[in-house]
Amino acid sequence: MGSRNFPSHLFVRLSLVFSLLVGGCRAAAFGQQSAPVDIVFRGATVMTASHGTIEHGAVWVHSGKIAGVGATVSAPQTATIVDATGMWLTPGIIDPHSHSALDSDVNEATSPVTPSMHMIDAFDNRSADLYRALAGGVTTELLLHGSANMIGGQAVVIKNKFGLDRDAMLFKNAPGSIKFASGENPKRVYGSRDQLPSTRMGNFEVMRMSFEDARHYMAEWDAYDAKVKKGDKDLVPPKRDLKLEALADVLRGKLFVQIHCYRADEFLTEEAIAKEYGYKIRAFHHALEMYKVAPEIAADGTAIATFADWWGYKDEARDAIPWNAVMSMRKGVRVALKSDSDDHIRRLNSEAGKMVHYGGATEDEAIKMVTLNPAWIIGVDDRVGSIDVGKDADLVLWNHDPLSNYARVMKVYIDGELFFDSSATGWGTTHFAGVMHDGGDFGSEDEENGQ
Amino acid sequence: MRLLKQIATGIAVLTSCLAVAQDRPSASSPTLAITGGRLLTVSHGTIENGVLVIADGKIAGVGPAGSVKVPKGAQVIDAKGMTVYPGLIDPETNFGLTEISADAETNDLEERSDEIMPHMHVADAFHAETELIPVARLNGITNALVAPASGDTIAGQDLFIQLYGNRQQMMLGNDVALAMNYGAEQRRRGGRGEGGRSKYPSTRMGLITELRQTFLDTQAYEAKKVAAAKKPDAEFKRDLKYEALLPYLKGDRPVVIGVYEAYDVETIMKLADEFHLKVILNHVTHSQEVLDEIATYKVPVIIGSIYDAPRANERYDAVFALPAELAKRGVKIAISSADGGGPVSSHSSRNLPYAAGMAVAYGLPYEDALKAITLNVAEMFGFGDKLGSLDVGKMANVVIANGDPLDVRTDVKKVFIQGVEVPHTSRQTKLRDEYK
Asked: Alpha carbon of B83 to those of A49, B140, B373, B402: distances in Å?
């Protein structure tokens, strides 16, 4: 691939020199103002993602939660009114597959099984990736390990409260997810070193071998616990092993399994192995050939997080068709669109718009693919992903129908607090001051061949 | 079940081969009248309820209903509720030079053996049967510039194509422009497949000096050639590299210079001025500081990818707004496809109109955006009298869609190239229909 565009990451230092280019970006340090207790958005086209679109609707936010939605709401007189006439209001965009803000620490590609890696350890909360995603309306992201390993690391779920401390950006009490991968990437990464796995046979056997290790480890601990329970004294406990503990958590169903996988045959093999070892697969990611086996996978309850229209960048993406998402949805699969890219994450809304074109998704179905459905994949759909009473007030105001590429984000609220305002001078951030860090590669992690 | 699928696939492949054989435009295209549609002429505004007449592969009439006579015997296509516009032209693709990005055997993107390669002709490698072309065509792309990838300072000569016909019909213009690049990427610093070894030129100083020496050598070669033509000289030997550069040093044909940074733009434009090159600037992604200066060059600019990353600390829309900022300064612009941060990926060429739509969202007037993917591109590469607008006498490359062509939600219904309706199929539609 000799045709890379300019490697912008080489120019971090230069970029600092030129940093005041557009709009005098360095805003004064922001005070940590607290958000108003009550906010009412009035006059907007409200796309709820769960129960249709309300023209000239109103949404009432109380203490960071949605307290009312409808043609009218009964908010107190003291509420701050946001006149959203002529604008669109949607839930915050949710990306179920991002490698933002991880510098180039996406793959611990030194072993095909690295379940004890935690992406939170690499999370850089000052990365410009987050800022640009926020300016594209993204409020929640699942930051995943890369696809070099059959069993990669554990994901971190963030709320894109750009400008807050690292801990304040974590999505509190979100379920854990772990990244698996199969196909070309692990084959190539380890095959090129003459290591296992270099084939798809090797891919899947590496998984089985790991789960055998985990079962043995669990049995050792179970035996120990049983003896302790029986009252045995002076026992030496088995050695704690972080890798095997993580795998045991997979087998105990404590982690959502998110699998990078392209081909139809691989979905079927992955489901068979999951059944063999007794865990569930939450979602296949990429899943470009899902349209070929959608009814089978729908029956297993596994969702997909797919691209709108990427294809042809590698052999296993050759049969990708832009109708995949809608065809799979019509056959019963829960479908989300995802970025896997610090570029596409900025425009997931119009990627969803493409689904109107490719397969005739309704606007409701399309908006769900970048809000409620990815929320389900992450396991936070009871808290975000739609405009419903009781949910977190993660909201985006747009100047145009968000399913069109003409739409620009006007304002982004997270937990009822304003985090981005495009009309503000400089960056438009409301909480960030200081210096942003450049992220890793701007392109797709996977297009980068999982390295 | 699998066997059945395989057989089905086999049949699909077979039928697609047959389809390809029949897919070519016949010698004479039928006379057509597209009526009732909203015509975006590009050159002279929008015509509601318009009539477009196509005869002999050319546009034979265009205007409001009633003002244009529908010829007797013409096949009438009802385009009521539809938008009709000229075929889109992508100013930078790798069509026919790539198939599967990660599969080296399917790529002929650039000759990496040396950085001065003007004698590489895209036309020699163009694989007309590529699966990428029908995919782009379905979204209304009818013409494109095919360029080599950007690793060399002088990468070769570009091919201008139409996206339908047999290979010869598709190749509308061989060697229409010289593909040049300048900046950090072209430095021979190793790590780019050169085994980690640096070689000359490994700095910007080296790149510029080597280019200047090459152009001087070409001028010296030309002097020798002229002399040899007057008085036969046994010593004189044709040199393909210099021969290739001659038309560009004479300013007969454009040189497309891919450059990103402001200071690189200034440096390369000084060199271009020194040798009177006819320049088309490409990218200028990080040149916001010198937009006024770029306007003074009076050269056209291709912007792509509009999705490239701004620098850290730049406002999020610094690149989205670039087309609008340049157009505002009177610069003639074109917009190319390609995804941000990715290679010039012609797999995404079908998204060309959406990049133009994005530019509109960030301030570019709609008419300018449409021109930036039609007429302006045609003019840049010498096809201004043949393509890029709905005007009588031009090739009938016409698209009918169910809405605004720049909006992602719009569905293209019909595509005509030189008056022939192109089959609305690709390998992807065949897969879709197979698994319906």
From this structure: 30, 12, 16, 6
User: Which of these CATH numbers, 3.40.50.170, 1.10.510.10, 3.20.20.140, 3.40.50.11810, describes B88-380?
Assistant: 3.20.20.140
Q: Please give the ipTM for the structure prediction.
A: 0.91
Q: Which residues contact B241 (CB under 8 A, 6 or more apart)?
A: B116, B117, B118, B119
* CB spacing of B341 vs A443 below 8 angstroms: yes
Whether A19 sits inside 8 A of B314 (CB atoms) is yes
Helical packing angle, B240-249 and B204-230, nearest 10°: 100
**Inter-chain contacts counted by CB atoms under 8 A, chains A and B:** 224
Domains and CATH numbers, chain A: 27-91+385-433 (2.30.40.10), 93-383 (3.20.20.140)
Domain B2-87+392-434 CATH class label: mainly beta
Mean pLDDT value of segment B349-365: 97
Place A15 in a pLDDT band, splitting at 50, 70 and 90. Answer: very low
State pLDDT tens for residues B196-222: 567 899 999 999 999 999 999 999 999
Name the closest residue on chain A to residue B261, using Cα atoms: A6
Is pLDDT at A1 greater than 50 in this prediction?
no
Beta bridge pairs of residue B158: B177
Q: What is the dihedral of CA A308, A312, A313, A314, to 10 degrees?
A: 120
Q: pLDDT tens-digit profile of A251-271?
A: 999 999 999 999 999 999 999
The per-residue pLDDT for B312 is 86
